[in-house]
Amino acid sequence: MSVELAVQLGRLSLPNPVLVASGTFGYAKEMAGIVDLAKLGGILPKTITSSPRPGNKPWRTVETTGGMLNSIGLDNDGIDYFVANHLPYLGSLGSPLVVSIAGKTREDFVAMASQLGDHAQVAAIELNISCPNVSGGIDFGTDPATCEKLVAEVRAACPHPIIAKLTPNVTSIATIAKAAEAGGADAVSAINTVQGMAIDWRRKKPMLGNVIGGLSGPAIKPVALRCVFQIAKATSIPIIGIGGISSLDDVMEFLVAGATAIQIGTANYFDPTLSNRVIKELPDALESIGAASVSEVVGTLHT
């Protein structure tokens, strides 16, 4: 049986549902000797901002049980540097390029999206409205009205498909997803990291320089699955599932929960070939349950 891996997220077409998450894959060049980049369903390079950012003070990462805390603070060289120095390479890889952007204001987001709209190499824009490690960075993802307005303004300013990346650090993530859908988002990605902290009890000091950071890795997978399931029940918008994915079984769980595609994040650090391996294994997994396409299993959880 021939199995169709291609998926559709609103106006965004992907060759397969396996993407690599922003902030865990550098600018792809770092992984070129390990990963067959052209076979990925999509690449999300490190989040960019309008101006260069030095990021947060160290420590920026701490290993935890079943995961990792990070407080990088969106360290990057700014959008102009990205367009001049990273975009030409990223656009040549043969894999859909989804550019992650973050802003302090709506005007920031709109201006960056408009600038990227001039570049055909960009397949889609992911709005990072959910970073817990930047002052103000999570505000757009916690208030439905603010989220809807931001998405609508960005969509009006940019021809590329728009993905809103949602935070789990809210009372109802489904409510925020509804707002993104109402604003015209092509898809939502869920979830960003879960707020957490680590403490050196002997020194009575926080281990992260920013005190609080974002927890990622296998420890947050149950939270992410719950969020995907709730969004799928409440909306019709396509979902990209993120959170603790480290095996083919994890991928299949997210698809059944309601995700049309997934992003591999923290696993890129400890198993960098996972994305390629999962893409290779996925057809057999789908065929084993009688599915001829990814879409046939999306949201098929029986409750």
Automatic annotation (TrEMBL):
Entry cofactors: FMN
Binding site for FMN: S22, K46, T47, N128, K165, I191, G217, G243, G244, G265, T266
Binding site for substrate: K46, N70, S71, I72, G73, L74, N128, N192, T193
Entry-linked PROSITE patterns: DHODEHASE_2
Chief localization: cytoplasm
List of catalytic residues: C131 (nucleophile)
Subcellular localization(s) per the UniProt record: Cytoplasm
Dihydroorotate dehydrogenase catalytic domain location: 5-286
Any one of the GO BP annotations: 'de novo' pyrimidine nucleobase biosynthetic process
Protein role: Catalyzes the conversion of dihydroorotate to orotate.
Family: Belongs to the dihydroorotate dehydrogenase family. Type 1 subfamily.
UniProt protein name: Dihydroorotate dehydrogenase
Species of provenance: Blastopirellula marina
Encoding gene (name): pyrD
